[in-house]
Every structure is written in structure tokens, then in C-alpha cells.
């Protein structure tokens, strides 16, 4: 297209889920319940960790960070999506779209790296228990968590710097329910190959490096656990990180497999939306449930807090 005929859009229209009014109401109700559950679960986890000194350990420090991240992760996307269900005006400003994309990518990248940090914490707790307290000091945990957030912020800034330079001409309709990278690249009217290459390289780094850390950590954990003579000792050692492993399996081997391992399988925008719903709504809701239901210390602390509330009332 001739450069002189190009004009950039001031807003985008998010098509969302174009269905009948009855189905729109059903989807609105389901997503609203999922959103409220995610907020409630993660707020409860944060409050329980803060209120119980027994949970003031590195493992739960990182879990608190993950819960805080999940709250904002869903809040960047779901409220706008819910609002679009209830109105005909599905516009989002160009600046609003870029802001939504930036924070979404930040939280996604931070979560991958944070899960790797949690795997490293599990590795030290089981494979190097004598040095664990000295290595995982409060200062080091804070530095590790801050590094996860900084990496996420920088990665998102790099990706956005390339995408924001693209021109979108008169194409203002995005066949998605939020501003994601692929739908934006699809409606660009200029050469997006450079932005696509940068996105691919950074996505590969953000996914593969943490994944290698997670896999290596759990291989070492597995060999260490197998050396423990008693079955009770094995069960106790592995239960320390079983909930983290479950979340990693859901997050990494679920969404990454569908989005990256078999991109040819996603042939339509509708399929892309279904997969996106899985990793933007379903997984955040399940993560906190897995951690609370599969973690004995969290369950005990939660029961203790509930008993206190009942007693004082």
C-alpha cells in the first residue's frame, strides 16, 4: 500500500463473541462468576498468608506474588469483555488497546518466570535442605520476585515498541475479545514481519527458558525423592511441590501446547478465542483452587482463620 494513503486508526472495535442475545447473557454470567471467583480465591490466599506466621516462608511469599499477579492478570481483560457483552459500543481507543496489550503481556511473561522461580525454590527445599534457609533469605526472595516483574515489564515494553509502530489504516475491527498480539498483527496494513519476528523470539525465550528451569528442577527433585528410603518421606517431600507442579502442567503443557506446539490446529478466530478463554479465564481460576486444595499448610491456615471468625462472631 502507498505510504501516502495510510492513516492510522483512533480506536478499534472488539467483535468479542458475536452470538444470540440469550447466549451473550449466558456467557456474561459464566465469565462474571469465573472472574469473581478468581478475585475471591486469590484475595483469600493473600490474606491467609499475611495473617499466618507459619506461612511466612519463601514458598508462600512466591505464592502471594502469584495470587497478586493473577488478580491483575484477569482484571486487565475481563471487565472490558463483560462490559462489551452489555453494550453495542465495543470500541476501545488505540491508546487503551496498547495499554491493555502491554499489561497483559507483562503479566503473562512475569507469570512464566515466577513459576520458574517457584520451581527453583522447590528444588532447593528438597535437594539442598541444609543450605536452603541461608540461600532463600528474605532479601534474596524479594530480589528474585522483583527480577520476575522487571523481566515481564521489559519484555512487554520491547514487544509493544514494535507493535505500536505499525499502521492500521482504515481497518479498525479486531475479531477477538481483547487486544492480543496476533489479532493486531493480522489487521495491520504495513509490513509486520519485524514485529512478528521479535514477538516470536521473545515468546520463545520467555517460554523455553523458564520451562527448562522447571523441567531441570523437577528431574533433580525426582532423583532426590527416589533416594529417600521411606515411602512416607517420599510422599512428604513430593507433596511440598505437588501443587506447583499441577499449575505448571496446566499452564505450560496446556496452553503452550495448543498455542505454539500445533499452531496449524487453530484455523479460525473462534478456535483462537476458545484457547484464549482457557488461559485468560479458566487457568487463573483453577490455579488458586489447586494451590489451596492441594496444599496442606494453606488448608490448615484457612481453617484456622475460619474458626477465628466463627469464634469472634
TrEMBL record:
Key words, A-Z: Cell membrane, G-protein coupled receptor, Membrane, Olfaction, Receptor, Sensory transduction, Transducer, Transmembrane, Transmembrane helix
Main location: membrane
Coiled-coil residues: none
Listed Pfam families: 7tm_4
Organism this protein belongs to: Chrysemys picta bellii (Western painted turtle)
Ranges of residues in domain G-protein coupled receptors family 1 profile: 41-291
Transmembrane segments: 25-48, 60-79, 99-120, 140-158, 200-226, 238-262, 274-293
GO MF annotation: an example: olfactory receptor activity
Protein name, as recorded: G-protein coupled receptors family 1 profile domain-containing protein
Superkingdom of origin organism: Eukaryota
Lineage: Eukaryota, Metazoa, Chordata, Craniata, Vertebrata
Topology within the bilayer: Multi-pass membrane protein
Family: Belongs to the G-protein coupled receptor 1 family.
Subcellular compartments: Cell membrane
InterPro entries: GPCR_Rhodpsn, GPCR_Rhodpsn_7TM, Olfact_rcpt, Olfactory_GPCR
